[in-house]
Design a protein that fits this description.
This protein is mostly helical. The protein has two domains: 49 residues, no CATH class; 226 residues, Orthogonal Bundle (MetI-like fold). It contains 13 helices and two strands. A two-stranded antiparallel ribbon has the order 1-2. It starts with 9 loop residues before the first helix and ends with a helix. The relative contact order is 0.13.
């Protein structure tokens, strides 16, 4: 049975044309700024940068073979994972606690506190790095003056990566907190009233009502923060000097990609490093998607 095609009316055609006109800038932006660079990165990873940065030479999987045998890449990837292990859980826990307190109607000046905690997100990364480098300064830093110690916070290999992670936690608290506040405001208050009638304490309400009902927001924050932590660059680049003795124990894999691509001029090898990171993030994302149904409660 043939289905008779209906012709579009003039008004429908005009509406469709305007629809395409409105989405065209976004489509062009995605193609020019996302898809084309992504395809070019894959191609670059299969090439060796020619002399004076011109005339790439196709070398197949040679960059990947070199990358998998390069201990510096695996050390940088491990440094990035260590950073994420501190930044993601600590940032989420602190942000969640602050969000719960700032949703309490009894607390006065909530708007002021929310603004203060969100300020690090709107500060320029260069300014944040400069302030924290002063705080961590071994001789004149405020932290050493307070603890009366002479600790090399960002030049001692054993603790430098922890110091960087602390800056990351401080920087992201406000962003996470705003998302959690939005999620908390969506939880029906009836649940808490029913729990109080049943004699549940505030702590029991938190773990049996707040956490399950907030799990979709928490899952989103965890996913985005893991990706954000694994792609760390600006903070690392501005805090850690190239002459820093702890750079090898702290540099992220994106920092290494930048060094290989733009400092050493080997864009093919740098692209291979970027592709390894992309695959690593994709694997983690797939694992998170697999366990989403088991840990996330959708009401």
């Amino acid at each position: 049975m043939r289905v008779k095609k209906t012709k579009m009316s003039h008004a429908s055609k005009v509406e469709a044309i305007w629809g395409w006109v409105f989405i065209l800038p976004t489509m062009l932006g995605l193609i020019i700024l996302n898809y084309i660079p992504a395809v070019n990165t894959v191609y670059q990873s299969l090439c060796k940068t020619g002399d004076f940065g011109r005339g790439n030479i196709f070398v197949g999987l040679e960059n990947y073979k070199r990358a998998f045998s390069d201990t510096e890449i695996w050390q940088s990837l491990w440094n990035t994972v260590k950073y994420a292990i501190i930044e993601v859980p600590a940032g989420i826990v602190i942000s969640l606690i602050l969000a719960v307190f700032l949703c309490d109607k009894k607390i006065k000046g909530k708007s002021l506190f929310r603004t203060i905690f969100f300020l690090p997100m709107v500060c320029a990364p260069a300014a944040v790095a400069m302030v924290w480098k002063w705080l961590y300064n071994q001789q004149f830093g405020l932290i050493n003056n307070l603890v009366h110690k002479n600790i090399a916070w960002i030049s001692e290999p054993k603790i430098a990566w922890i110091s960087i992670a602390i800056i990351g936690v401080w920087s992201i608290i406000g962003y996470n907190m705003v998302l959690f506040i939005g999620g908390l405001q969506e939880i029906p208050h009836d649940y808490y009233e029913a729990a109080e009638l049943d004699g549940a304490s505030k702590l029991q309400q938190f773990f049996h009502i707040t956490i399950p009902m907030l799990s979709p927001t928490m899952f989103f924050v965890v996913q985005t923060r893991i990706i954000g932590a694994l792609t760390l660059f600006d903070l690392m680049f501005m805090v850690m000097d190239k002459t820093n003795a702890a750079l090898g124990n702290t540099q992220s894999i994106v920092y290494l990609f930048y060094t290989e691509s733009f400092t050493n001029g080997n864009k093919g090898y740098g692209a291979a490093i970027a592709m390894i990171l992309v695959v690593f993030i994709m694997l983690i994302t797939l694992i998170l998607q697999k366990i989403e149904k088991k840990i996330v409660f959708y009401n």
